[in-house]
Design a protein that fits this description.
Strand content: 15-25%
Largest sheet: 5 strands, mixed, barrel
Strand order of the largest sheet: 1-2-3-5-4
Number of helices: 5
Distance between the termini: 65 Å
Number of strands: 5
Structural class: alpha+beta
Helix content: 25-40%
CATH architecture of one domain: Beta Barrel
Radius of gyration: 31 Å
CATH topology of one domain: OB fold (Dihydrolipoamide Acetyltransferase, E2P)
Order of helices and strands: HHEEEEEHHH
Length: about 220
């Protein structure tokens, strides 16, 4: 099998010298080559036949390898901006383990968008008869907002914001999408409506048409 060797270079390398580091990498490559050879001999004794593979470039310094032989790695160091609204549409259901302490306090929220994690929501946020009749809400869409996600938990914690209505209907589905993307779809305030023409029916004046480009 192909072996990819990753090396991380930092200020310590400069202090000890690149020659020392290169010697260490060369020794590691030799050890891996020996291990691979011994495994090949053992497989041959056992009667396992392998197809001969073309060897890759023999380079002691990984930095000199072509890009196609390297696997770049990285890690997240800081979150600059939270793009997601932390709101999602989905369904609620009872937890599977009825004997657990968590069953008495929380329900499970399953988002429609599978990129969003499942969420524990308080039973206090759920409808009053949800525990006794959970099947009545199996097709009801809810809006849930994630408030926390602990590092040692597979599920996030959140709060149910509102019930949207029956899944599959246009109004609940549309409202859910708008809420997820943080679109303000509330009614315009009286101050905004006062900016509109009050004398109806309103028409564009000839003078206004003369200085505008008609894109109708």
């Amino acid at each position: 099998p192909d072996v990819i060797i990753e090396a991380q270079f930092d200020d310590n390398d400069a202090e000890h010298g690149q020659d020392h580091l290169q010697d260490m990498l060369t020794d590691d490559i030799k050890k891996l080559s020996l291990d691979t050879g011994e495994k090949g001999k053992a497989a041959g004794v056992a009667g396992v036949h392998r197809a001969k593979q073309d060897d890759g470039p023999k380079v002691s310094d990984p930095r000199l390898l072509p890009d196609e032989f390297l696997q770049r790695t990285a890690k997240v160091v800081y979150i600059l901006e939270k793009k997601h609204s932390r709101a999602a549409t989905g369904f609620i259901k009872l937890l599977a383990d009825r004997n657990s302490e968590l069953f008495k306090r929380c329900a499970m929220f399953s988002p429609v968008d599978h990129r969003v994690p499942r969420v524990y929501v308080p039973l206090a946020d759920c409808p009053p008869d949800f525990v006794t009749k959970p099947e009545a809400y199996s097709q009801t869409l809810f809006i849930c907002r994630i408030v926390d996600w602990k590092e040692d938990s597979n599920f996030a914690s959140g709060q149910l914001c509102k019930s949207l209505g029956q899944a599959g209907e246009i109004e609940p589905e549309s409202e859910g999408i708008l809420t997820e993307y943080g679109v303000d779809f509330s009614d315009f305030s009286p101050e905004v409506l006062e900016c509109l023409p009050q004398n109806l029916p309103w028409v564009i004046s000839p003078g206004e048409l003369a200085k505008r480009r008609d894109l109708r």
